[in-house]
Every structure is written in structure tokens, then in C-alpha cells.
Amino acid sequence: MKASPNPTAAAEAQARSSILARLRAPTTPAALPLPDVKAWFETHQRHEDSAQRVSRLRAALEAVKTEVHDTTAADWPELLLRLIAAKGLRNLLIGSDTPHGAELEARQPASLELKRYAESIDSWRDVLFDEVDASLTLAKSAMAEVGSLILWPTPQEPRLMSLVPSVHFVLLDVDTIHADFYSAMSFENWKDRLPAHALLICGPSRTADIQQTLAYGAHGPRELVVLLRHPATQSEGAAA
User: Which of 7, 67, 164, 178 has the lowest tally of Cβ within 10 angstroms?
Assistant: First the structure.
């Protein structure tokens, strides 16, 4: 006598086959529409002029214990040398071959040693970490919205220059201050020339322990000093 088929077993087999077929079938998820970032930022722009961007950047930097000084293209070396003398610094690390480094060397006083970053880190690691008081680097640009400096390290000014010395001086041209990150990336065409490293610096290095005690210099420079370099044609009062 022939056994009648088990409807439950047949249904389970069919369900299993259907599940396996769906798992094995290639799937092409529907593409999600990309957000219109440009349109969003265009409708949220502040429409500020250069002076307003400078003011917002200064306020954001000073709120996190950053020193900010106004200067001009002609006077910034003298201002920097005065600040170095006031802080009692013995030496300053500069890039291996930069226009601003050469400009400072031309006005170097006898009391200050300028060290060029001209060697590999392996050959002078101890000197960099133990004997360098401060460094000077040039900022690529800045963002007023969040109070950040943008640095693009180069072989002439490696990123260690902004991370190791206890005091970090940054020279920033005011005409490179953008409203926000999107404006900076768009204006500087980051999508076609993204740097190997981009540093966003918002203030001196700081950290807090479980007791909420804030300490500076634990993971980098304890002091950040920004020199806002205005065009030489602007007022003499721009100099600090």
C-alpha cells in the first residue's frame, strides 16, 4: 500500500527552497539619494565679510585658552620675537626651507637659537622631544565656524612640529579664513588634491581626569599662539 505524501514536510521543503533561493540570488539594493550638501550650506551661510570671520575665529580660539595676536605681513617677525622673549624661550624650531622661516632668520637676534627641521626623526628624536622649546608653522587656512586652524604638513614642516614642542606658534593669513569646513574644502578643492595629512587644531592640548581637573600639554603643546597676519596695506593698529 502506497503511503500518502506528508503535506507538512512538503511545505517545509518548499519554504526552505524559497529561502535558499533568495539568499543565493544576487541582490542590488536600491540606491539612496545623495544629500545636496551644497544646497544645504548655501541656505545656511552667514554671508560674513573678512572682518566678521576674523572676529568669530578669534572668539572661538580665545575661548579655549589660545593666544591670538594681530600683526601685518611686514611686522609679524618682530611680534613673534617679542613674544618669544617674553616667554623666556631659548630656541625655536622652523621648517627646513620655507619663506617665513627665511624671513625670520634674516631678523634673528643673538639671544635666540633657530633650529631647522632638516634631519630625519630617527637621527634627532631626543633633541626634538627634550631640547626644543617652541615651533613655528604656517597654517593652510582656518574655519571661523568652529574655531579651527587647518594645517597641511609637508616635508619642510612635518606634523611633529605641531605636536611635540611645548609652545606652538602658528602664522595665519587672514584672507585664508573660511566660514566653515565645507567652504574650506570647496574653495581649496580638497576633492582633487586631498593632502596626506590634514590637521585641525582648535587650541592647546588639554585633557581632564576623573576628578574633572583640566590639564594642558598632556598630549601636545601646552600653549598655542596664533599670529593673524593682515595685509601690509591695512592699518598699523592691526599689529599687537
Answer: 7
Instruction: Express each pLDDT in 75-100 by its tens digit.
Output: 999 999 999 999 999 999 999 989 99
d(CA 36, CA 175): 27
Element of type H or E holding 142: strand 141-143
Single-letter amino acid, residue 33 = P
CA atoms within 13 Å, Cβ hemisphere of 149: 29
pLDDT tens per residue, range 9-64: 778 888 888 888 888 887 777 888 888 888 888 888 888 899 999 999 999 999 99
Q: How far apart are CA 17 and CA 4, in angstroms?
A: 22
Distances (CA, A) of 94 to 8, 25, 119, 239: 81, 61, 12, 22
